[in-house]
Amino acid sequence: MNYVAISDTGGIIANGSYQNIYLFGNTNNSPTFNFDLTRLSDTGIASSLDLTANGKFIVAGISREDSSTIVGFSSSSTNPVWTKRFVPTVSTGGASIQGVRISGNDSIVIVNTYAEFIVLNTFTGQQIYRGLINPGNPGSGTQSEQGISGDGKLIATINYGGFLRVYQWNGTSYVFLFGNQEPPGAFVNWYLQLIYPMTDNMSQPEH
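Above: the chain's sequence. Below: its structure in token form.
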């Protein structure tokens, strides 16, 4: 599979393709950045990725069956700024990275496997929070990205059981705010990708 992201300014395009992560300018088909995943001892396959607004920093998932790696890069170097191993606690759906989404202010990134999600500082990889997509039924997950507000103070998870769960930053951690389930009907009651832009006056996560 191929994965793509574009900077808010439109100047940089990121592409995860099999065993390479590329960056392109918007006027040239020659990559300005090429990270070869075979450089890693355990290699893996390029998966979901995202860019900061100006395209100068990229967070990418490198997927494997038993565990995956999340990597942060400056666009000026193929030497990772940080790496974090994601070992799932729920076996259903495996360890593949299904989604990477950076907040609008670039400070926070939410990354998810099929059954779990993790919130990290974009530029350092520091873990801020980790949880299950669906705590009531951990094996019920999703292959969609999860949601994060522009300021990183709200996160929202969704799954194929039709559950939406929203968390709010309280100054020290994310706390569950509310949930909703799509009522069963004539068709599959799945929740898919979402965006939840919002600002408020709460203190931001530390970074």
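The first strand starts at residue 2 and ends at 6.
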